[in-house]
Amino acid sequence: MDMMRIGFLGPGLMGTGMAMSLARAHPVITTLHRNRAHEGRLLGAGITVLASVEAVAEQADVLFLCLPNADVVRDVVERVRGVLTPGAMIVDTSTSLPSVTREIAVDLSHSRIALIDAPVTGGPAESEAGTLVSMVGASETDFARVEPFLQLTSKTIVRMGPPGTGHAAKLINNFITQGQAALTVEAMRRCDSVGVDMTRMVEVISASGSRSGTFMAIMPPVVAGHYDGLKFSLENAAKDVRYARAMFADAGVPSRLIEDGLAAFFDAETRDWPPETYVSGLMRKRP
């Protein structure tokens, strides 16, 4: 694969590691706004920081997005579409709404710009190591174009189907993950109240069938006094539940578990905690 200039918009907690992984094989350009927490790491990886979103898009052969939500994705695409050249490729690694993704993909196709949804699972460590899992929504032709880039960020890459299916798969994945997180927090918060030593309960679950990756990310660090094992914000967890709820409803298959359980849980937690609180942090005593 020839060396190409990659634009990366959204170098936050996850995006920074992805940009650094891409920079091992290609020149990467980005821009920063209010949050400059990762600037030193980006510069240390040889990534060039430009003044604006438009400047990045204008100089990029491939444009990666890692943005907070579907509304921001829509706004950013609208800003850059005029400076992208026909044949350009936008790779959206955000967690977004499939309906919005399909709408943008059709719209951009009229300008011969491909939108590929390629959301990921994994955390910041996997992001920087290039060992994420990518779920890709793209035509077979566009998948062949994007796969060499995703091989730099991900150990597992699965084409789910046409545009929008990558984001649909990510919402199903996160529905399960947020469900496991909510069950973990709800159960483990109550150990003391029913006379069960939480540390011993963590030992039991860690060796039993109820063990999960989510449980292990949250609870062993909590026992050790750390509340950042699952580096995923309450705000993003609540958003994922809303998006899954909307996706299932649009498909005519609403989820009773979301309607009566997860949505209520995360709505209540967002009233009690700051939105940037990590899900693991819900194990602290309530503020």
Automatic annotation (TrEMBL):
Every 3-hydroxyisobutyrate dehydrogenase-like NAD-binding domain range: 164-258
Stored Pfam families: NAD_binding_11, NAD_binding_2
Gene3D superfamilies (UniProt xref): N-(1-d-carboxylethyl)-l-norvaline Dehydrogenase, domain 2, NAD(P)-binding Rossmann-like Domain
Active site: K170
UniProt-recorded Gene Ontology molecular function terms: NAD binding; NADP binding; oxidoreductase activity
Keyword Oxidoreductase: yes
Sorted UniProt keywords: NAD, Oxidoreductase
Occurrences of domain 6-phosphogluconate dehydrogenase NADP-binding (ranges): 5-161
Record keyword Amino-acid biosynthesis present: no
Name of protein: NAD(P)-dependent oxidoreductase
Protein's organism: Acuticoccus sediminis
Lineage: Bacteria, Pseudomonadati, Pseudomonadota, Alphaproteobacteria, Hyphomicrobiales
